[in-house]
Automatic annotation (TrEMBL), chain A:
SUPFAM superfamilies: NagB/RpiA/CoA transferase-like. One of its GO terms (molecular function) is transferase activity. It comes from Methylobacterium gnaphalii. Signal peptide: none annotated. It comes from the Bacteria. Pfam families: Mal_decarbox_Al. This is Malonate decarboxylase subunit alpha. Transmembrane segments: none annotated.
UniProtKB/TrEMBL annotation, chain B:
GO terms for biological process: carbohydrate metabolic process; fatty acid biosynthetic process; malonyl-CoA biosynthetic process. It comes from the Bacteria. One of its GO terms (molecular function) is transferase activity. PROSITE patterns: COA_CT_NTER. Gene3D superfamilies: 2-enoyl-CoA Hydratase, Chain A, domain 1 (3.90.226.10). This is Biotin-independent malonate decarboxylase subunit beta. It comes from Methylobacterium gnaphalii. Keywords: Transferase. Residues 1-244 form the CoA carboxyltransferase N-terminal domain. It holds the Pfam family Carboxyl_trans. The gene is mdcB_2. The keyword Transferase applies.
UniProtKB/TrEMBL annotation, chain C:
Covalently binds the prosthetic group of malonate decarboxylase. Its main location: cytoplasm. One of its GO terms (cellular component) is cytoplasm. This is Malonate decarboxylase acyl carrier protein. Keywords: Cytoplasm, Phosphoprotein. It is found in: Cytoplasm. The modification O-(phosphoribosyl dephospho-coenzyme A)serine is found at S28. It comes from Methylobacterium gnaphalii.
Amino acid sequence: MTDWRSEKMARDARIEAGRVHAQGKVVRGDAVVDLLEAVLKPGDRICLEGDNQKQADCLARGLAACDPTKIHDLHMVQSGIVLPEHLDVFETGIAKRLDYSYSGPQGGRIAKMLYGGQIELGAVHTYLELFARYFVDLTPNVALIAGVSADRDGNLYTGPNTEDTPTVVEATAFKNGVVIAQVNEIVERVPRVDIPGDRIDFVVEADTPFYVEPLFTRDPAAMTETQILIAMMAIKGIYAEYGVRRLNHGIGFGTAAIELLLPTYAEKLGLKGKIATHWALNPHPTLIPAIESGWVKQVHCFGSEVGMDRYIRERSDVFFTGGDGSLRSNRAFCQTAGLYACDMFIGATLQIDLAGHSSTVTQNRVAGFGGAPNMGSDPHGRRHPSDAWMKAGHEAEIVGDPALMRGRKLVVQLVETFGDKLVPTFVEKLDALELAKKTGLQLAPVMIYGDDVTHIVTEEGIANLLLCRNADEREQAIRGVAGYTEVGRGRDRAMVQHLRERGVIRRPEDLGIEPLDADRSLLAAKSIKDLVHWSGGLYEPPARFRNW
Amino acid sequence: MRIVTDPGSQSWYEASARQRIAALVDAGTFEEFLGPAERAMSPHLPLFDLPRAFDDGIVVGRGKLDGRPVLVAAQEGRFMGGAFGEIHGAKLVGLLRAAIASKPAAVLILFDTGGVRLQEANAGETAIAETMRAIVDARAAGIPVIGLIGGRAGCYGGGGLIAGTCSRLAVSESGRISVSGPEVIETNKGAEEFDSRDRALVWRTMGGKHRRLTGAADAYCADTVAAFREAAITLVGTAPAFDLATLEAEQARLEARVKRFGDCRDATEIWARLGVNDPDAVPAMTDAAFAKTASSVTEASHDAR
Amino acid sequence: METLHFRHSTQKAASGSKPMAITGVVASGNLEVLLERVLPPDACEVAIETPVGGYGDVWEAVVADFVARTQPGGLRISINDGGARPDTVSLRLAQGARLMEASA
C-alpha cells in the first residue's frame, strides 16, 4: 500500500530530534549547531534566509560550524549570497548545489568558486522566479529564517525588514518542511504577528541582532554634475513626456539624483502631482525631500533601509505600516507590484551592447540579478491601461490591427558612457557571454534583454528605442548616445543625425536643457546631514555615513 | 529654463578657491596676482610624473571687502589636498609681505590644506615658517590677518600652525583645524587612542563646532560663502591689537584651558564642563541652534590671540 | 606625463572679448582648462598634459567636436588633466567657452 504521508512522518521525526535541544520551541543560542545537526539530513534542500538586506546570520554561522561528516551535500536555495558563511559551507562540503538570485557583496568570491568548480550551480534567478520555484521544484526541506522577536509559541515579528520571510515560510511550512527562526529576543508578546506561530517549529535566541546591509543609502555629497545632467534629461525627456506616475527606481546615483531633483528642478517645471507619485521602492533616504515636499503619495517596499525606521513610522500616510506602527515590507508582493502595477522601471547597469542587452556581470564579478529583470521587463500578462503605458505602446512599431495594440512598460537604462577608471559602459560584446562560456552556463546572465529596453539615457542624450524600426536604427541610436567610447566613436554620423531629426535621439539642447546648468546647487540635499534635517531628525543614518 | 543661483548661497565646502573669492569680496573687485596665465607652476611635480596646476593650488590677489581694500589668499583643497609646495608657499608669503607695504584693511586667508606637500617637503616646511613670520610682521604693523576655514581638506599640518598665528578665525561645521591629522595620530598612537575612520570622533575632536566652543575659532558660519563674508567683515572689525597684553592674555587662556580640560577623554566632556546642557546633541544640531548654544558659552569669546 | 597638441582652423572667432578664463581643478577625475585669446581669429590651439597615457585618439575626438560646435577662433586652450573622463572634458571646455563669452 502506498504511504501518502511519508513526508509528514519524516517532518515529525525531524522535529522530535530537534526538541531534545529545545525547551518547547525555544532553543538557546549556543545550541544552534546541535539543533541543526539533529534536524538536517545530508542532501537536504535548505533555504537559508539571506535577503537583500536582512540576514539569518546566527543560523548561517551555525550551519557553517556543523560537522561535514554529519551534514553534507546540501542543496542551498536562497535569494542572497551576502555573508562569507554563505560560501564557506561550499568549501567544507556541507553544501554542494546552489540556486540563488543575488550575490552583490560576495560577487568576486562566487565567481572564483564557480570557475573553480566548488559550487554546483543550478541557476541564477530573479527574485520572483526563485520564489516561484520554491513552490514548484525547489521546495525546501528546512528553512532557516530571521526575525526581530518571537514569543514562546513561535509567533514571529519580523520588524520592518519582512522581505522574503513570508514567502519562504509559506513554501516550507505548508509542504512538510521544518522552519527554524532566529530572533534578537524572546518576548512575552510580539508587537505584531508577521508569521503565525503554528508555522514556526523552532525559535533560536541569537547571540547578536541580525545583520542588515544598508544597500540603498546614496550620499548626495558624491553626486556629480554628469549624474545631475542625466537626471535632468530623464525628468524632462521621459517622466514628463510620458506622465509617469507609478514607478520603480534602481539603486544607483543617477536615480538618487532624480529623487533629489524632484522638489527643485521638476518642481520648477511644474510637474508636481503629474509624475512620480506612486512607488514600488525601498525607503531610499534620498526620497525624503520629495516626500516632505508633498510629491509622493504612496510607497510600497521590498524591504526597509537602515536608519529609516523612525521616519517611516511618522509617515504612515506614505508607507505601508502595521498596527504597531513599523514598516511592513514584502519582497514578493513588491516585486509583483513593480512588474504589473508600475509603468516604468529606471535603473543603471554596467554594460550595454549594440542591441541594448545589458549586464552587471564583469569578468571577475558575478553580482546576480536580484529583482531588476522583473522590474525591467514588459509584462505580457498586463491588461490594465494607463496613459504612460499606452503612449509607449503607440510609439512601438505596430504590426497588424491597431485595435489590438497593447501598451508597453517603460524600461529605462540610465548610464554614464564611462564607468570608474575609464571603463566603457558600451561594448560590442557583453562580458556575460564570456562568463557563460567559461562556466558552462546554458543561459548567459543578461540583466535586461534588449527587446525589453525602451530608452537609454546618457550624458550625451536619450535614445528612444521604441521608435527604432529595425536593428540598424537600434544600433545607431545606441551608438548615438554612447559618447566617446569606441562604440560611440564608431557611429554612422549621417544616420545618427537622421535619427535625431526623427526624435529617436534627443540631445540636451533638443530638450531645452543647458548642460552647464547641471549643477550640484540643484540638489534638494547635498549631504546625508541635509537629509536628516529634511526629515526633522527622524532619519538616523548609519555611522559610516555620518561625520557627527 | 535658465537656472540662476545666487553666488553667495553657494556651499563654501563645495566651492572652488576661485568661486569662494569671487563671492567673498565685493562683486567684481578681485584682481589676481601671478594668475594662471603666468604659469607659475611647481618645478618639482613633473619629476614625480604628477600633474601640475597653473596656479599651484593657491589664488592670491587684492579686492575690496565691504568697500575696504583687502588682500586675499585661497587654497584649492582639491589640488593635492591644498598642500604647501614651493610656489604655493612663496605666493602666500609674498602676499603677506606685500601687506606691510600696501597697508590693506586686512589679509584674508582661505585655508584648505592637509599641510606640506610630500614631494617638495623642504620647500613646503620653509614656507610654513616664513608664512608664520610674515603674519606676525603684518599683525605687528597693525594689519589683521583673518583665517576662514570650511573646506574639504580642513586646515591641517602647517596650515594648523599658521591658523594659530592669525588674528581671528571663522569656521564652519565642516571645517577641521588641527596640526596632526587623524591618520597621523592613529599611526603614532594606535587606533585605540584615535580611530581615524570614526568620522564622528574626528569631527568631535577637530571640527568647527568644537573649535568654536573652546574659543579656538572666533566665529561660526553656516556653510555658505555669504555667511563667511559676513563673518569676515565682523572679524576684521573686532581683531585684537597685536601687543604684549594680547599675547599674555592668550598664554593665560591656553594655560587655563589645559588645566581645566586636560583630563577629559572626549570632546563631549569638555562641552559639558563649558556648561553645554546636552553635549551629545551638539554634533547633530542645526547651524542656528548651535550658534545659540555657542553664544551662551563664555569661554568661546575672548580678546586673546 | 603625456603631452598632446591639436591645432584647428575655425570659421569664426570665439564670441565675447574676455582675454582669459580658467575653469575646473586638477584633481582625480577632473581637469583645469585655461583659455587665452591670443591667436589669430581663425585658429585654435589646444595643449594637454595628462598623467593617463594612450588616449590620444579620444582627446582628438573630444577636441574636434568642441571646435566644430563652439568655433573658438583666437583661443589658445591649455589643459592640466587629472585623469578626467571625456564627458567631463567636454563639459569643462564648454564651461570655459561660456566664460570667455563675457565682455572684457
